[in-house]
Amino acid sequence: MSRSMWIAASGMMAQQLNIDVISNNLANVNTVGYKKSRADFEDLMYQKVTSPSVGFDGKMDASTGVQVGLGVRSVGVPKIYTEGNINQTNNDLDIAIEGDGFFQVQMPGGEIGYTRAGNFKKNSDGYLTTSDGYLLIPSIQTPADTKALFVSSDGKVTVTRPGQTTTQEIGQLQVAMFANPAGLENVGKNIVVQSSASGDPILETPGANGAGTLSQGYLEASNVDIAEEMIKMIMAQRAYEINSKAIQSSDELMSMTNNLRR
Questions:
Q1: Is residue 71 a contact partner of residue 10, using CB atoms and an 8 Å limit?
Q2: Are the CB atoms for 147 and 161 separated by under 8 Å?
Q3: How many Å apart are CA 112 and CA 172, to the nearest integer?
């Protein structure tokens, strides 16, 4: 009976983590470029009471044996990199990636970060940055007298200036791809960083070699499906509840045993 309590307790802790992950998904349902997470679990070790054995005639003497599982544990919370809806904003500084890839940004400590959020801004020097002021890489600096900015699907950035009849190219955007994007490390602010699990970034021109193309005036929405997350939350709540009931049942059995009299 004590074993059943520990098993049920592991189930309650697993479902608490599941609820935490679901809650974070729902909290970020309107976060630009956000990718939903999923809690993955696996069963724990098994206590072997009796083992299956094979007789001389090739049949199982002890049927399938008796092996009692000892609960569940979490093994990871990977990001699900399916593409979110592409919404039109008509803002020249909003850029969505349609397909695979990430924008590169310069982190304060010199590290390179990666993001799917393309809601860029201009700083006081005309450089394109994230909402937190991180510079876009390759750096794009717009002239002070820029009338309009254009970003082509293959990442070429051009501007129009007063007195000019043609556009002027000021830079070329790239996208970074990873062999295992689920292995990227989340650091917040819509940014992930490279890890040993993700592999090294592969820099490509948008639209080349499987890389996504760019769409100016659009933003990629979160890929969180509210209905799906609500269903998962109900299932996690019920699983938590039934595990607590198992603990309660074990406690009642122990109480009955303690109250036995001759």
A1: yes
A2: yes
A3: 18
Give the model confidence (pLDDT) of 202-257 as tens digits. Answer: 999 999 999 999 999 999 999 999 999 999 999 999 999 999 999 998 888 888 88
Chain centroid to CA 249: 37
Q: What is the dihedral of CA 18, 24, 25, 27, to 10 degrees?
A: 140
**Closest C-alpha to 137, from 93, 176, 105:** 105
Q: What values do phi and psi take at 60, rounded to 5?
A: -80, 120
The type of residue at 153 is S
The DSSP code for 227 is H
Kindly give the pairing relationship between strand 168-172 and strand 175-177.
unpaired
Kindly tell me the sign of the dihedral angle through the C-alpha atoms of 57, 62, 64, 67: negative
Q: Residue 45's closest CA among 96, 12, 3?
A: 3
Distance from C-alpha of 116 to C-alpha of 98, rounded to nearest angstrom: 10
List the chain domain ranges: 2-29+40-76+224-258, 86-220
Helix orientation angle between 2-27 and 226-258, rounded to the nearest 10 degrees: 160
95-to-102, 218, 261 alpha-carbon distances in Å: 11, 6, 76
User: Which amino acid, 178?
Assistant: F
Strand partners, 216: 95
Evaluate whether 134 touches 112 at the Cβ level (below 8 Å).
no
Q: What is the mean pLDDT of residues 3-14?
A: 92
Parallel/antiparallel/unpaired status of strands 218-220 and 86-88 = antiparallel
Question: What's the length of the chain?
Answer: 262
pTM, whole model, 2 decimals? Answer: 0.86
